[in-house]
Amino acid sequence: MLAVAGVTMAASTAVLADVVVKIGFAGPLTGPISHVGKDEQFGAQLALEDANAKGVTLGGQKARFELMAEDDQADPRTATTVAQRLVDAGVKGVVGHVTSGAAIPASRIYEQGGVPAVTPSSTTPKLTRQGFKTTYRVIANDIQQGNAMARFAVDVLKAQRIAVIDDRTAYGQGLADALVDSLKQRGVKPVGREFTNDKATDFAAILTKLKAAKPDAIFYGGMDAQGAPLLKQMKQLGITAKYLGGDGACTAEMIKIAGTAMSSDVYCTQAGIPMDKMPAGKAFNERFTKRFGVPVQLYAPYSYDAASALIEAMKLANSAEPEKYLPLMQKVAFKGVTGNIAFDANGDVREGGVALYQFNAGKWEVRP
């Protein structure tokens, strides 16, 4: 009798035990833009902690979500290795990758493995135009950013002599290309187009060449790790052109690194809307800061929504198995931290906004 009771108790315990659901995260956790990667890692972590606190039941068992974070170093080759490692580890979904250069090669691994991946910050249009069923994005793309910056530069700043530099990454070049295309639609041809790389620190040759073209604005497509030194060297060479950047330069780290080179003629676009305009932005930043001891850097709210999108699809399917919930990603619809989250046929978020910022009084301020 006791033995039977023991068996019965063990079986009951097994039924009630939480089922662990591993969610992968991939981004640069070391290197010059690790602050962006960690920001997104923390955003995904907070989403999983919130889901665990609320309690999610899948297939009759309470799910306990755990994050498996991998460092792709913002490197395309490393990204494929990381992606394969996550797939082999049996993750049920992935938040990432952070950069476009890493997201594109990794996306093929997730497609082959049948694992849904939602990027919070890869903005290249190419990512979601590969025909992959597992690729999703919760933020606006480069085409929208390029249009916004071109319109602002020409119509508001009245800039006509615009030079363009990019770091030759999928992200930086994609954003620069989008800007150039939008400028051409407005009858403005760049007075110079130069290239660097995402490891560079010396931009003297490029800037000296562009200075001779007498630009009234210089756009840089890339991240803050290069964007800030570039700005400092512009000032050192006496270049008075306005500085324009994308979301990679729209960070607190940009202000920190550039220091006194920052001025009111420095502008940037950011995919998405300002945190204080997000439906739950203010509360999110307060909770995020309390939990991790640092304020939101850039994309943490989008990372939170990316993780939440995976969980919402699992809830719709009543299963964490990718083959069961992947078909329901197209039916995901919820109010996230950043706004309404729902995807189009390509996997892009349906309502992707763009905000424009100007540096003023020590911080980024939203331009109307």
Automatic annotation (TrEMBL):
UniProt keywords, alphabetically: Amino-acid transport, Signal, Transport
Looking up InterPro entries in the UniProt record yields: Leu-bd, Leu_Ile_Val-bd, Peripla_BP_I
Which branch of life, at top level? Bacteria
- The leader peptide range reads 1-17
* Domain called Leucine-binding protein: residue spans: 21-362
Membership in a protein family: Belongs to the leucine-binding protein family.
Which protein are we looking at?
Answer: Branched chain amino acid ABC transporter substrate-binding protein
Say which species the protein is native to.
Zoogloea oryzae
Q: What is the lineage of its organism?
A: Bacteria, Pseudomonadati, Pseudomonadota, Betaproteobacteria, Rhodocyclales
